[in-house]
Write a structure and sequence with these properties.
Radius of gyration: 24 Å
Strand order of the largest sheet: 7-6-5-8-1-9-19-2-20
Largest sheet: 9 strands, mixed
Number of strands: 22
Structural class: alpha/beta
Distance between the termini: 57 Å
Helix content: 25-40%
Shape: globular
Length: 542
């Protein structure tokens, strides 16, 4: 058997929130002809996301090959149960473990364009970074090397990172079409950046990220899904227009469209591996679950009374520092003396903490009662039904340590609550019902199943949907394709049956320091406010 020959170059298109339910019908009906041809040559399948299937958690896992139980990122923010404070994660959490750091330290140049979890951009020995939508604005340092900033702004003078603001009122078909046009402009931008850097700053590994797919799905999933799209043929055609442009981008970024790219094809001067992947999938929103309302109904949570609410409001009014006032306003208005458990925040799934004595500032659950109280609460969740049905409202409730190896060290949740398909947890306490179904929803929510596809010389075509992999498997598979050793600390493993000639797999001790929350924030107070608004507009913060 011949020896495995490492790939000369890897090009990765990271398409946020994309799933096969969306892509395959468009490949089959001719809308995405380049994708259809790509898949005939590719090994492709379902890419399971992280727990939870959250943008911050999943792209952190893509970058490190480690699950959230190792890198500790389950949301864009980190919750401190001792002080009931939130802090934004930044790239310092995963910098040492990042595949870009590992490869550049090994002499393999890398480039990242707009990929989340790379702000602030950190130095590489070889390569470049253009940070993603967690970047406050273009006045910040958003590139490495720093002089790359002028080059990026030369390509896109009007560059901005708050892409969610590009989606305007879509009540009319005309407004919807304008939103699609702005989405197409976002695709144009990613393509221009990727192709420009391939020509001017060639690297061996390039990742180009498109957020516009995720925004589209959150705003208009009903017309993206072939099962419900027939309700509005005009809007479905606009969706197809968007994905025809994605198809063109795939063609051009992967260099499949011109004779000038022959060197990237089999028989050229070097082999290129082309990869499509997403962080999670998507689907129609079926409803919202106000978990703190349920906890109150079950007697685990006690909201503030009228006097407590008035005192809290007075404290807010007398806090003159705007940043401190925003921080205090996000604190939960609870009577802690009567609260045993509370939903601290949501990241697609619900993150519940017990009000534990010795950990929480006003904890009332004794350590010796912790397991008993937690087990009883799990039973309550699992007994709850979707109103008017016999269908369970929650499909799974994990104990934090079941899925997060460093749960105690990193103060990760005591319970991770997984609602029924399409139901989205909310934090706020409402006067209305705790569960609100949305049968006429237009937007969507994250699902677990994303996509992966590998194409290139020496890749075994799957001739249909391949085996399921996990997003943690992407980093070790990329290392393997480059002939690089795999750190033992990665929880992912190389995807099997991918290469005609199996590469040798060498594991090494993981010398990178354990990830942590970092000692200080990369954001100023004003920048935090900007990011808060952006994440709130996207539905990630309440």
């Amino acid at each position: 058997m011949p020896n495995f020959e490492p790939f000369e170059r890897i090009l990765i298109l990271a398409l946020d929130s994309v799933c096969w339910d969306m892509l395959l019908p468009l490949a089959q009906d001719g809308t995405m002809s380049a994708l259809a041809a790509f898949l005939r040559r590719a090994h492709y399948g379902t890419l399971d996301s992280t727990i939870p299937p959250h943008t911050a958690a999943a792209w952190s896992t893509f970058l490190t090959g480690k699950d959230p139980g190792q890198h500790g990122i389950v949301d864009f923010v980190k919750f401190d149960p001792a002080h009931h404070r939130f802090k934004f994660h930044d790239s310092s959490v995963t910098q040492a473990d990042s595949i870009f750091t590992r490869l550049s330290n090994s002499g393999i140049p890398c480039g990242s364009i707009f990929l989340p979890r790379n702000y602030p951009p950190f130095p590489l020995k070889n390569g470049y970074v253009v940070s993603g939508f967690e970047t406050p604005n273009t006045q910040c340092r958003f590139t490495f090397p720093e002089d790359l900033r002028a080059e990026v702004l030369g390509i896109s003078p009007d560059l901005h990172f708050n892409f969610e603001d590009d989606w305007g009122d879509a009540a009319t078909d005309e407004g919807f079409a304008q939103n699609i046009d702005r989405g197409v402009e976002a695709i144009d931008l990613v393509e221009r950046m990727a192709v420009h850097f391939q020509r001017e700053r060639p690297v061996r590994v390039q990742v180009a990220y498109l957020q516009a797919t995720d925004i589209l799905f959150h705003k208009a999933w009903r017309w993206c899904d072939a099962k419900t799209a027939a309700e509005n043929p005009y809007r479905r055609e606009q969706i197809k227009k968007f994905f025809r442009r994605v198809d063109q981008m795939l063609n051009r970024v992967f260099g499949l469209h011109s004779s000038a790219s022959q060197r990237m094809r089999p028989g050229g001067s070097g082999r290129t591996l082309r990869v499509i992947c997403s962080d999670h999938g998507h689907g129609l929103s079926n409803g919202r679950v106000f978990i703190n309302n349920l906890l109150a109904k079950w007697g685990y949570l006690k909201p503030l009374g009228s006097f407590g609410r008035a005192s809290r409001q007075l404290r807010l009014l007398t806090t003159f520092d705007a940043a401190s006032r925003r921080t205090k306003s996000r604190e939960m208005g609870l009577d802690w003396s009567g609260t045993k458990a509370y939903l601290a925040h949501v990241g697609i799934y619900g993150f519940v903490y017990m009000n534990l004595r010795g950990r929480e500032a006003h904890g009332i659950v004794a350590p010796e009662d912790y397991e008993k109280e937690r087990d009883a609460l799990i039973a309550k969740f699992m007994q709850e039904k979707i109103p008017g049905t016999d269908t369970p409202l929650f499909v799974r409730v994990y104990k934090g340590e079941e899925i997060y190896a460093r749960k105690q060290e990193l103060n990760l949740p005591d319970l991770v609550v997984v609602p029924a398909d399409g139901y989205y947890p909310r934090k706020k306490i409402t006067r209305g019902p705790a569960v609100r179904s949305t049968p006429n929803a237009i937007g969507g929510v994250h699902r677990t199943q994303g996509v992966y596809a590998f194409e290139g010389e020496g890749i075994v075509p799957s001739l249909g949907m391949g085996a399921t992999a996990n997003i943690a498997d992407m980093a070790p598979t990329i290392l393997q394709a480059l002939g690089q050793p795999i750190p033992k600390g990665m929880t992912g493993r190389p995807i099997p049956n991918l290469f005609e000639v199996p590469p040798p797999t060498k594991y090494i001790d993981d010398k990178a320091p354990s990830t942590s929350s970092g000692s200080s924030s990369a954001y100023s107070k004003d920048e935090e406010q900007e990011i808060e608004k952006r994440l709130s507009d996207l539905g990630y913060l309440e």
